[in-house]
Amino acid sequence: xxxxxxxxxxxxxxxxxxxxxxxxxxxxxxxxxxxxxxxxxxxxxxxxxxxxxxxxxxxxxxxxxxxxxxxxxxxxxxxxxxxxxxxxxxxxxxxxxxxxxxxxxxxxxxxxxxxxxxxxxxxxxxxxxxxxxxxxxxxxxxxxxxxxxxxxxxxxxxx
Amino acid sequence: xxxxxxxxxxxxxxxxxxxxxxxxxxxxxxxxxxxxxxxxxxxxxxxxxxxxxxxxxxxxxxxxxxxxxxxxxxxxxxxxxxxxxxxxxxxxxxxxxxxxxxxxxxxxxxxxxxxxxxxxxxxxxxxxxxxxxxxxxxxxxxxxxxxxxxxxxxxxxxx
DNA sequence: CGAATTTCAGTTGTGCACAACCGATCTCGC
DNA sequence: GCGAGATCGGTTGTGCACAACTGAAATTCG
Lengths: 159, 159
Hints:
The structure is a homodimer of 159-residue chains.
Chain A: H1 2-27, H2 34-46, E1 49-50, H3 51-58, H4 62-74, E2 78-82, E3 90-94, H5 96-104, H6 108-116, H7 121-141
Antiparallel strand pairs in A: 1-3, 2-3
Helix pairs in contact in A: 1-6
The structure holds a DNA duplex (30 and 30 nucleotides).
């Protein structure tokens, strides 16, 4: 039932925005966004990482990460420095302030868990598996339209 | 397990972006975005709607919809006109071109369904129910921080 | 009636996402 | 060495998403 699958996509979109709202409210006192929180969480858990590595964890490219990390650096949450070993690479590491947030924000996972109201750990695990399955399928299924094929005569090309 | 719940949030975020990528590739020949496609789908299914009604279906406010609908009107996909009955209201309806896209884009639901690779209709229904449950819980759970409470002394307020 | 309140669409400003592209740098094969 | 190709981070430009606000219009109520 194709229409149901599109409803799942919309539900994904709506649920993501709902969780994002909750993170926004929780993070507002620190003036952090959800992606910024994810960067902090990555560095807390994995230690200093290159921009590319952070991008792999978050699945974002430099076009998104560069300005995001620049804003975080301006606020003294992280620092970026060129790698000595490879001058193409920029290593991102936490400042003292960024590290200190780990303590300040330690209540957030529990607050999110409460807000989501999943039945139990097995429930969450099952959902996690299915979401990752969708993500993998969709990534595998991207219909490779050649980058910016002109496609004359489709829509919006007259007048 | 709080950490698992945060992983579900991230999986939601990642899965949404993956589906969005697939829609982007499918819609690229018509130079449409996923939210624009949703507006078209709403109008195809529900007929002419006020901006507020479209916003209720998509769960978006006028801050997002106004520029989105303006771009669609500039491309002659929809038309907006002030309601005669209530001058505050703007009714959105399809143009001939917007209506014609219903035929051009009728392959998309099946393409999405194929890409998602869900087992069967019952599988999709179950997932849909759980996603809607999360969305509802999160909306109910928004920790009402007073709008833009200054919160001095948190982070980013010195220097 | 007429003032206070509410509703509605729009605007402004900020921050993601992402395609497309760029320059610097590294690697590999010769 | 050295030149072709790959890798890395950054920039540009477009389009959401959203908070906060505005002004016009409708509604409520004293």
